[in-house]
Amino acid sequence: MSDPHISRFLAEAAPPARDPGFELAVMTRLEMKRFRRAMAMNLGLAVAGSLLLAVAAPALNGVWAGLSSNLMIAALLLAGGALLLQSPLARDD
Questions:
Q1: What pLDDT shows up at residue 26?
Q2: Are 65 and 11 in contact (CB under 8 A)?
């Protein structure tokens, strides 16, 4: 542009290089989407686990009767939880 008045006017009317409000709104929308997806996954896994436990409860009753020690039951539950945390379903990469 050869006209300095037009160049100055366009430079003043240009939007800012960064818009923090817009960036924050976009990041908030993305995080809410990730949060909803993670909550839906967790809810689905909880329902599936509950149904699986309800179906397997009669078969597990004999196993639990054999494990009379509460310490053994707690150790098995902790080991199962640790294995679930290492599963790909628990990661949100």
A1: 95
A2: no
